[in-house]
Amino acid sequence: MKKTFYVTTPIYYASGDLHIGHTYTTVLADIMNRYKKLMGYETFFLTGSDEHGQKIATKALAENLSPKNYVDKIVEKFKNLWNLLDVDYDKFIRTTDDYHKKAVQEIFSKLVEKDLIYKGSYKGLYCVSCEEFLTSEQINEEGLCKVSQTKPEILAEETYFLRVSQFSDFLTKLFDTNFLTPESRKNEMLKNFIEPGLEDLSVTRISLEWGIPTNEDPKHVIYVWIDALSNYITALGYGQSENSLLKKFWNSKTEIVQYVGKEITRFHSIYWPVILEGLGLPMPTKLISHGWILAKDTKMSKSLGNVIDPIAVINGFSSDALRFYIAKELPTERDGNFTEELFIESYNTNLANNIGNLISRTNNMIVKYFDGNILEEIDLANHQITNLKNQMIANYIKEMNDYQIHKAVDIVMRFSQELNKFIEDEKPWALEKSGDTKNLAVVLKVLQESIAVIIHLLSPILTKSYSLMLNQIGYNKPLLNIYELESGKLVFEKINDRKIIFERIN
Ligand code: MSP
């Protein structure tokens, strides 16, 4: 039986256009999903939209639209963006989907039945922009929410609570495992929320209409975060009669990876595990909490008005260029920068001067010296480059398995640099001049094979250019999985055409 892999992105608020920060999370998930396919896994990739809550209701009102009409328009734009970025998700969930709403009501009822949810009353500060009740830790000296920089509302109402405080031991044990990465975020959660003592979470609102009502007490609408977090299982069929996906992908044998940004880590590392445990479901394998993309040192966000539009980047450059920048230049452990200068510099260094140049030179020489096809029988098993290549594949796999996409890309880039240097050292043009056809064939063949491997390893990232790249070195078969690559023995065809793949940007 095939190994199974399930990856999710947060579901984005359908409150406005998405920016580069959102594409970051989704592209990482897409790359990981494509990588797992390359490794022979059966995979499922979920993304979607978070459509309830006060912020969205207010925005719709301002545009004279019903909330549903408002979110319908936005969701079309989300899907269009993922399409432009070649994001190959298996399912797009909307929290306004009927099956989701019913399943959320069932989740709520189940937690009430287990006495994990009880009725009480709440008084405190609520940030509408973050859809979150704030603790004193989350408010700055001017009384504003530290994340959104907006003034929270005072809220006092009857509410149902989730007994989070009962789960102290459970969460302490969970945080002893490697489920949340990076370590720094884990320590932050422990220090700010778990060690000081967990508080029960208010999970319904009576002053909100645009949301899912509870079955027990319909004037109570389910808090957006409970509604939203549940998407990861309702999308697979939780609470529905057809739940074969749930059986296949939400179990302790499946590698379940959830990507989230750092500001929503608390919801995913504390409340989500509590809900899962309450429902008797296993924990995800890995919660990857990434940093923010900054624009001039502050978080890029709609409410701060400093966003970069991904569609402009895709139109100005290409989706592959954007995907590559995300993969290579934005390690998840820390905040990263996105500026046009950095973007162009990375593109030129890596894609134009390194990979593009390597492919173009090799293509050129195979066409010029062998009429596009090296027909000599050559055994490359003990060649120094073959050894380097195999080591490189192993290192790449190690980093990818550890979700370190940027390190894996770096390993491939360094190998590509080695190959460019190998060309300088071996001087194929001199071999040709001296009539040493045998060694000339060896040099070009080992380059051709190595480049085919590079292209395969970058295929989860460079989705649009990979077949063109392969074609440029005479490989026209469907993508191989990684084990087939390691065994070597690639069969090449005659190279006919020549194109520049990653043109330098000036
Ligand atoms: N709807 C909630 C998530 C519910 S998941 C059950 C939400 N939506 S969001 O639209 O505000 O943002 C979702 C994701 O986008 C988060 O992972 C967040 O970190 C990410 N980003 C938003 N701005 C970002 C940057 N500037 N940089 C990196 N990621 C950013 O929260």
UniProtKB/TrEMBL annotation:
<keyword id="KW-0963">Cytoplasm</keyword>
<dbReference type="InterPro" id="IPR015413">
    <property type="entry name" value="Methionyl/Leucyl_tRNA_Synth"/>
</dbReference>
<keyword id="KW-0547">Nucleotide-binding</keyword>
<dbReference type="GO" id="GO:0005524">
    <property type="term" value="F:ATP binding"/>
</dbReference>
<dbReference type="InterPro" id="IPR023457">
    <property type="entry name" value="Met-tRNA_synth_2"/>
</dbReference>
<feature type="binding site">
    <location>
        <position position="127"/>
    </location>
    <ligand>
        <name>Zn(2+)</name>
    </ligand>
</feature>
<dbReference type="InterPro" id="IPR041872">
    <property type="entry name" value="Anticodon_Met"/>
</dbReference>
<keyword id="KW-0067">ATP-binding</keyword>
<feature type="short sequence motif" description="'KMSKS' region">
    <location>
        <begin position="299"/>
        <end position="303"/>
    </location>
</feature>
<dbReference type="GO" id="GO:0005737">
    <property type="term" value="C:cytoplasm"/>
</dbReference>
<dbReference type="GO" id="GO:0006431">
    <property type="term" value="P:methionyl-tRNA aminoacylation"/>
</dbReference>
<keyword id="KW-0436">Ligase</keyword>
<feature type="domain" description="Methionyl/Valyl/Leucyl/Isoleucyl-tRNA synthetase anticodon-binding">
    <location>
        <begin position="385"/>
        <end position="462"/>
    </location>
</feature>
<protein>
    <recommendedName>
        <fullName>Methionine--tRNA ligase</fullName>
        <ecNumber>6.1.1.10</ecNumber>
    </recommendedName>
</protein>
<feature type="domain" description="Methionyl/Leucyl tRNA synthetase">
    <location>
        <begin position="5"/>
        <end position="140"/>
    </location>
</feature>
<dbReference type="GO" id="GO:0004825">
    <property type="term" value="F:methionine-tRNA ligase activity"/>
</dbReference>
<feature type="short sequence motif" description="'HIGH' region">
    <location>
        <begin position="12"/>
        <end position="22"/>
    </location>
</feature>
<keyword id="KW-0030">Aminoacyl-tRNA synthetase</keyword>
<dbReference type="InterPro" id="IPR013155">
    <property type="entry name" value="M/V/L/I-tRNA-synth_anticd-bd"/>
</dbReference>
<comment type="function">
    <text>Is required not only for elongation of protein synthesis but also for the initiation of all mRNA translation through initiator tRNA(fMet) aminoacylation.</text>
</comment>
<feature type="binding site">
    <location>
        <position position="130"/>
    </location>
    <ligand>
        <name>Zn(2+)</name>
    </ligand>
</feature>
<dbReference type="InterPro" id="IPR009080">
    <property type="entry name" value="tRNAsynth_Ia_anticodon-bd"/>
</dbReference>
<comment type="similarity">
    <text>Belongs to the class-I aminoacyl-tRNA synthetase family.</text>
</comment>
<feature type="binding site">
    <location>
        <position position="145"/>
    </location>
    <ligand>
        <name>Zn(2+)</name>
    </ligand>
</feature>
<keyword id="KW-0648">Protein biosynthesis</keyword>
<dbReference type="InterPro" id="IPR014758">
    <property type="entry name" value="Met-tRNA_synth"/>
</dbReference>
<comment type="subunit">
    <text>Monomer.</text>
</comment>
<dbReference type="Pfam" id="PF09334">
    <property type="entry name" value="tRNA-synt_1g"/>
</dbReference>
<dbReference type="InterPro" id="IPR033911">
    <property type="entry name" value="MetRS_core"/>
</dbReference>
<feature type="domain" description="Methionyl/Leucyl tRNA synthetase">
    <location>
        <begin position="143"/>
        <end position="362"/>
    </location>
</feature>
<dbReference type="Pfam" id="PF08264">
    <property type="entry name" value="Anticodon_1"/>
</dbReference>
<dbReference type="InterPro" id="IPR014729">
    <property type="entry name" value="Rossmann-like_a/b/a_fold"/>
</dbReference>
